[in-house]
Design goal:
There is one protein chain. Helices cover 40% and strands 12% of the residues. The chain is of the alpha/beta class. α3 packs parallel to α4 and α8 runs parallel beside α9. It is globular and about 70 Å long.
């Protein structure tokens, strides 16, 4: 049996499309293929769909949800329903209570296999958990020993986990990013929209995403290309940042340049995809972005992605230098944006088509690679790098 412990779904984050019952980017494939599994949801008493404490998920709500999932699985194990070689899959390596499962399974004398997706950890100096590394790192290493396998979307993250002593290399599998282009396609505009000289920005506005660098680039571009539009997109009701100065500066910039800087808050996915479908560029300024669904969605919507030539991005972008700019270089990033805005469209259109092909051949099959590893089946026809 495959036991599935999903992340709680927040519509303002990617956890809804990843983990929604039966239609999530993993589960929809299990349903389509008739794969037997049991979903174990957690409890969320008193918690809303908005993130309160935390950046990516609500830290308190996440703990309540995860502990209740583990409690339900422990109850099933005590009743003899969990058996040797059953597979338990966690949407997130950071599932509080995994150690309690390992302890209970040992005492019960059963040996199910546990797997988890790892999105980021304190081994990455650019991740927000890095500041907690003194106590988090021993926990990460302990869970790394408990798990039978860890799935990552980037070889860079695998290298960091190995170097940090989280797990041995033979336990970490680079599977690509779980994604379902068919699900995204159902939300795209029915008719093609005109391409504006518009640059979309979809990252969180937190410090590790370099919001001030982003604004420096915006100022430089609009100074020479007054027709350029920069649209900042968020599913949150109000744009937030862990840098207290970032959002106020952005709002001042938008007030100064109302035709050039547009803040779109509280977007549904459909509204967000409309913005991408009208944009020529999807611009990213992050130091740390192993999980770049924004890149995949934007490419599928026909945007030309412009990202720093740093860490996981060259791997995610097929190593295409045309997509890249020198990290932290305002001039390099500005010039890359301007060259696309000034082009006749052939360059970014051709590259966007190539990016979409890359998605279909690579990330749409991440779920299959993960499933085959969990079921200990040979990897037959789904190479990560075709």
């Amino acid at each position: 049996m495959l036991y599935y412990l999903p992340l709680e779904s927040y519509k303002e984050r990617y956890t809804y499309q990843l983990s929604a019952p039966k239609i999530g980017w993993l589960e929809r494939n299990w349903v389509a293929e008739g794969i037997p599994y049991l979903r174990i949801d957690g409890d969320r008493p008193g918690f809303s769909d908005s993130i309160g404490t935390g950046c990516v998920v609500d830290a308190i709500g996440r703990s309540v949800f995860a502990f209740s999932q583990v409690s339900k699985l422990l109850d099933m194990a005590q009743k003899g329903q969990v058996k040797d070689n059953d597979v338990i899959y966690f949407d997130d390596f950071w599932t509080p209570g995994v150690e309690a499962l390992a302890y209970a399974f040992h005492m019960l004398g059963i040996k199910p296999r546990m797997y988890a997706q790892c999105w980021a950890q304190s081994v990455d100096e650019y991740d927000f958990t890095y500041g907690m590394r003194d106590w988090i790192r021993p926990f990460e290493r302990g869970i790394g020993q408990v798990l039978s396998g860890i799935f990552v979307c980037s070889s860079i993250l695998k290298d960091l986990l190995v170097q940090g002593g989280v797990a041995s290399a033979d336990k970490i599998f680079v599977t690509g990013l779980p994604y379902a282009s068919d699900e995204v396609a159902t939300r795209l505009p029915l008719q093609p929209l005109p391409r504006l000289k518009q640059v979309a920005y979809s990252s969180r506005f937190d410090s590790e995403k370099n919001p001030h660098f982003y604004m420096d680039v915006v100022e430089r571009v609009i100074a020479s290309r007054p027709e350029a539009r920069f649209v900042i997109c968020t599913g949150s009701a109000v744009l937030r940042s862990n840098d207290d100065s970032a959002v106020p500066r952005l709002r001042r910039l938008a007030a100064l340049h109302p035709d050039n800087v547009i803040i779109r808050e509280g977007l549904t996915k459909e509204q967000y995809y409309e913005e991408l479908s009208q944009s020529r560029i999807q611009f990213n300024t992050a130091d740390q972005d192993f999980v770049s669904w924004t890149l995949l969605e934007a490419a599928q919507c026909g945007c030309y992605p412009i990202y720093p030539q740093f860490r996981s991005f060259p791997e995610a972008l097929r190593g295409q230098p045309a997509f890249m700019y020198r990290p932290k270089s305002v001039v390099s990033a500005s010039n890359a944006i301007i060259s696309v805005l000034d082009s006749d469209g052939s360059l970014w259109d051709a590259e966007a088509i190539a990016s979409r092909d890359w998605i279909y051949r690579t990330h749409d099959y991440a779920w299959r690679r993960m499933y085959d590893h969990m079921m200990q089946r040979p990897q037959l026809c789904y190479p990560l790098h075709p």
